[in-house]
Structures are given as structure tokens and as C-alpha cells.
Amino acid sequence: MTHPILNCGYVPLVDCAPLIIAKELGFAEDEGLKLNLLRQPSWSALRDLLALGHLDAAHMLSPMPLAMRLGLSGQTTEVDAPLVLSTNGTVVGVSTDLAAKMRASGWIPDIGKPKAFTDTLSKATDRPLRVGVPFPFSMHRLLFEYLVADLDAATAPSFEIVPTPPPLMSQAVADGEIDIFCVGEPWGSVAVTSGVAELIMPGAAIWASAPEKVLGLRRDWIEANDALCGALIRSIYRAAKWLGQTENGPLASEILARSEHLDLSDQLIDPALTGRLVMRSGRAPMQIDGFLKFHAGASTFPWRSLGAWIGQQISELHGLDRERTMIEGSNCWRSDLYRRHLASSHVDMPGASAKIEGAMVHRTAVASTRGQMILGPDAFFDSKTFEFPELN
Amino acid sequence: MKNDLKIVVVEADRDRALAIVDTLKDEGWNSVTVLGDATGLARKIAALDPDLVLIDLADPSRDALEQVSLASSADARAVAMFVDRSDDEMTYAAMAAGLSAYVVGAPEPERIKSVLKTAIARFQVTSQMRRELQVAKQALEDRKTIDRAKGLVMRAKGVSEEEAYGLMRKTAMSQNRKVIDVAQALLTASDLLE
What is the complex's ipTM, to 2 decimals? Predict the structure, then answer.
């Protein structure tokens, strides 16, 4: 019997790993699927092909489904996220030039103190700063905007967001086109190795549990392909679970490096998977726990409150109605599909589908469908919490 | 008309860029700039302020242009796309969807020419439509303002609607201004005095 072929777009970054593993380790085949992975040169190209129906599924930046639904990015298309592919995995860095100015202003590097970083920025420079992020609708951008949102407007420098493809980030710093960046690994490390930049902190220092990439599906496709959709969610869930087991790390790195789907050597893949990062050229690597999460803390679960948080941030950036954008955001995070399609696989699930974001400073046990599960941490750097007032 | 279009070609491969520029010049599009270096792309394009940007669909720098198309207002620039493999189905799908992105089978100049013509024609039609829509919206807004000002004059002077409009028109003509300007001035003054 021939398996149905599913065209799935991705951008060659380490965090598309669940898709590659689902294919290479045969999880997709177990579910009766042939996963046809199609590499995309840019997020805009991936977005347009998904909107036009040339892709059935896609590896997407977590704010993209809402941006597409709101018509802010490409043609208006209803895209849903039934599963989170990866959480965290980004870094914030600055040019060596800016780092030197910050040191001269008394800055002492500390990955746990984002506030000290932004305060020093205000002291170190008064010219506008250009911030490289991969795409206007990316968690990278939302994290950076959140980090600087509450700075004193009178003293803070102004920031200009400059979308820059990750592989070009290092060159853009070298050319003086950007001063700061927020990007997924390995592209921050590449800039450090090239001697043009220094890493300040992981994105997780801004938000300890930031959903980075999601599985994106068109709503009409979901409605017309219920069984296929379930098979896809189950196979990717198994891949994410496999990736989440620490002992599989070295093998995962090897599979990804050897796979035809990424053009990255294992030296470039390893830091992202192990969380061992060289923050400054010539220094010893630093171990960052929970650097890139595929499965720990129920990270695959598409909490509706995550979609709502993204909605709130986008409403502020684009001057949209806050309440409505939050509801739209939560509506494209389809925890209902996740629950329904994984119910038969004995997957432990949270009792609720929305949570208070930012409330867990440490790992916390919560009620789950099979008893108890460990979530978090998910705190924001400013200790604020975000609650989406919705009945579960 | 078409000679007025400012076109930017984003292409790192010099030979390919030159071939595209030649094709464009043959067709009478003379205002063509080539950007070969990917860094600072958005800044350079914003400075050039072109009507049309041509970039390879397979170029990762396309994401850098997203902000450019977001920033530009009513006259959003079209982005035409070249790709090595020709894919008619996608070209037509993209056009039907009204995307400002078009796929071109790049190497043969004849094909570039025909798809570019379609792309530019479509760009001109949509920008014309946008302009018309803008004009219609403005007219509607003006009408509302004039109606409110008429109401003010009617109440203040105890005159009919027609007489109120006549008064506003007379004032406008004698001051060499538009009726809408007079109406706006009236509303501003009345807001101040309230």
C-alpha cells in the first residue's frame, strides 16, 4: 500500500529537528505517512507556498500563523498551530564595538540580568541602534521588543528592527549594518567565532519558556484531512519526545548533520542541542540549561495562552485592538486538535488549556490527565505575569 | 508611462543581473538599479524608493524586504520573483491570489520579458485601484466634514441646507480655498469655542 505524501516546508535551522527525526527514524512511516520535506530559502517563500496550497504543513516562527490570519504577512490565510515544535533556542548578542562601549559604562556580563544589559545600553550610546531579527513576525522580535518596552523613553536609545536572514547575521554585524541581534543558534555562535560579536544572554533570560517554532497547517487543510492531520501530529510528537531524551543528543546531532535536509556540520549543531555556548571569543563555553527544548515541561503543548500572549504583543506593535487580537491569537493555537489526536497515544496532557504565563519561577507540578506533570519554568525577566481571561 | 517606473534588481550574480537589466532596457525601462550585496538591503531599498523590486524567489534575503513592503503605505511596491525552475502553475496561482510576487523562469529573456510585462501591468492596475480607493475614501470623509459644517451654519444662521452650502461655497471662492478647507476651519473653530 502506498502512503499518502505530505509536503512539509521547513527552513534549514536546528529547530526543524522534529520534522527530520520524524522522517529519518520512521515515526512518520509508522503512522502511514510519507513526509516530503521541502527546504525553503526564506520565511516569506515558505509562507506564500503554504498559503497557495503547495505545502500541506510547515515549520513556522510562532507568531506567523496569527500574522497570516490578520493579513499582516502575505495574503490573509487561516493558519493554525496544533503543536509547538521547539521552545527557546535563541540568543541575544551585540557587536564587539557596542560590547566595548558597554564595558566602558560599567557593564558586567551576566546572562541572568537582562535589565542590567538594557540599562547599560542607555548609558553606553545615544545613537539609534539597529536590531537584527530573522523576520518581522518572529519570537526573536517579540522577545526583544518585550525586553525594551518598559525602558525610560527619555534616556533609552531608539531601536530599529532590521529583518536579516540568520545565515547573514554575522556579516551584517561585520558590515556595521546591525548593532544587536536576536537569532536562533548556530548563527549567534557563528558571529562570536568570526570575532564580530559577543553573546549577552539566551532568549530564555527574557522569557524562560518562549515558544519558538510551531507546526503550521492551513485550516481548510485540517478540516479536509482529519486522519492525515492526526498522523502528522502523532509522528512529530514522537520525534519531539525522542529529541527530548538527553541520551539521544549525540545521535540526534549526527542524524541532523548527515541528513540531506540541513547544511550544518555537527560542530554547528552541537551547541544548540547541548546548550554549551561560547559567549565571547576565546572564553570557555558556558552551560545553559534548557537552552533548546523539544519536549521537556510539556513544551509541545499549544497552550492557548501562548497564542494570546503573541496576540497581545502584535496588537501593541501594530496598533490593533488588544482584546480581539488576543482572542484571534489564542484561536490559532489548537490545543483541541493536540488533545484529540494524541488521546489514543497515552500522552500525558495538562488538565487546562490555558495558563498564567510567567507564574512559574521554578519547575512546578500541575494536575494532568494521568495524574501529575512537571511544567516550567516560564517566568518573564521583569517578573510580570500574563493572564488570558478565558474559561477552559 | 512605463518608463517612469523605478526598478531595483536584487541579484548577486553579475552576469544574471546584467542580463536582466538588458532585458528591461530593451523594453524601455531605463531606471534600473542593481543591488548585489545582501547586507543592508532594506535600508538601501528604502533610500532608492523604487516602484518595483525584482528578487529571486530562492534568495534568502527576501525576508529582509518584508519590512520594506510593510512600511510603504498605499503605493506598496510590487516584488516580482525570479526562479530558476519555471513553474507556470505557481506563477498563475500567485497572480490569481493577488500576491505581489511572481515567478519567472529566469534564463530565457523572452520569458522574463513576458512575465515582467504581466507583473508590471498588474502592479500598475493595482496601484491605480489603490489610488482610486483612496480618492473614494477621501471623498466620503470630506462629505461627512462638509455635512457637519453645513449643520453648524444652518443652526448659527437659521438658514436652509442649500443656503448654508451656498454660503460656504461663496466664502471658499472669495478666499480662493476649497469648500472642504472652509468646512474644516469651521469645525475646528467650533470645537475650540465649545
Answer: 0.86
